[in-house]
UniProtKB/TrEMBL annotation:
A Pfam match: HTH_1
SUPFAM superfamilies: Periplasmic binding protein-like II (SSF53850), Winged helix' DNA-binding domain (SSF46785)
The UniProt record lists the keyword Transcription regulation: yes
Similarity remark: Belongs to the LysR transcriptional regulatory family.
Keywords recorded for this protein, A-Z: DNA-binding, Transcription, Transcription regulation
Sequence ranges assigned to domain HTH lysR-type in this UniProt record: 12-68
Residue intervals passing through the bilayer: none
Organism field: Motilimonas cestriensis
PANTHER family per the UniProt record, alphabetical: HTH-TYPE TRANSCRIPTIONAL REGULATOR, TRANSCRIPTIONAL REGULATOR-RELATED
Protein name as catalogued: LysR family transcriptional regulator
Keyword RNA-binding listed: no
Length: 313
């Protein structure tokens, strides 16, 4: 395949833009007015374009010019070309203003995803083409993302020592089993009994996990990468697991799962926080996304960051 950079282009973006204007405005006269150019210059540009391409793009019938079949195909492709060029120039302008080409977000898996998705929906029309890298994280892995400044924005359930964050929402974690599990027949379950059972756990995303965090007292463990896998296993009667209550609400309602009747510690609560690991380097794109997340929780944007990139003191 020939390298496209080794061959000189036959036509210019301006010629394609003129062709589009002639078609969109229904002729050379109105297109000339819209582009603030003379009608003869537009006619010359389109004639030259057809000659350069070696393809008839327009055909004249009476006093009007109509697209040929080939012209229709070329016009559609040219719109993609000019739109891409416009977006490229817009990206350059955004970068000059400090707008990030990519925003990295780490989100602890216990955080309700429907809230995150609504914040994303609100942000995308304002994103100016910035790519979003959304990564799930678990416990120590989330803390690492903050400490090692691996992300622009982090939603964490565990604030590392020395860091502050904006509280978002309390997440209630409940121990669950299947109605098929032998423990489901007991009226109460002692923690010592639970320690003898198989626990399904979610793999910590850190390279060096901190096993002092969370409830990991069972000797028998089955480790999976996400809550969806854990729900599938536990609903089949394989072990027990701690789940965010919002995540298993439908399974509990449909009696595919049931909460363990523990004598003590029937649930755990974790407050999720919004953290910007490096406040001195937050860009306008990340700042805008932060404000969308705060709005999702009915928090004022100036409770954390303003929309002009600077962190509030």
């Amino acid at each position: 395949m020939q390298d496209p950079t080794s061959k000189r282009l036959k036509a210019t973006l301006e010629q394609w833009r003129i062709l589009q204007a002639v078609v969109d405005h229904g002729g050379y006269s109105k297109a000339a007015e819209a582009l603030n150019k003379s009608q003869s210059s537009l006619n010359h540009a389109v004639t030259k374009l057809q000659h350069q391409m070696g393809v008839a793009l327009l055909e004249v019938k009476g006093r009007k010019a109509y697209l040929t079949n080939a012209g229709e195909v070329m016009l559609r492709r040219s719109r993609l070309l000019t739109q891409s060029a416009f977006e490229l120039e817009q990206l350059a302008d955004n970068l000059c203003q400090g707008w990030e080409p990519e925003i990295t977000l780490y989100a602890e898996i216990i955080y309700p995803r429907e809230r995150l998705y609504r914040a994303l929906q609100a942000f995308l029309p304002q994103s100016r083409g910035s790519r979003i890298k959304l990564l799930d994280s678990v416990i120590t892995g989330t803390s690492d993302a903050i400490i090692k400044k691996q992300a622009d924005i982090v939603i964490t359930g565990q604030l590392p020592k020395g860091y502050l964050g904006q509280p978002l929402i309390n997440v209630h974690l409940v121990p669950c089993i299947s109605p098929l599990h032998p423990l489901s027949q007991q009226s109460t379950v002692d923690v010592k009994e639970l320690m003898q059972e198989l626990q399904v756990v979610i793999k910590d995303t850190a390279i060096t996990p901190n096993e002092s965090l969370g409830w990991l007292k069972s000797e028998q463990r089955l480790t999976v990468s996400n809550f969806h896998e854990a729900v599938s296993l536990v609903s089949q009667g394989i072990g027990f697991a701690w789940f965010p209550k919002h995540f298993v609400a439908s399974q509990l309602k449909q009696k595919q799962l049931q909460m363990l009747p523990l004598k003590q510690g029937k649930s755990r609560t974790s407050m999720t926080h919004l953290v910007v690991p490096d406040e001195t380097r937050i860009g306008p794109g990340a700042s805008t996304f932060v404000n969308c997340l705060l709005a999702e929780h009915n928090l004022e944007s100036d409770a954390f960051y303003d929309s002009n990139k600077e962190p509030i003191a």
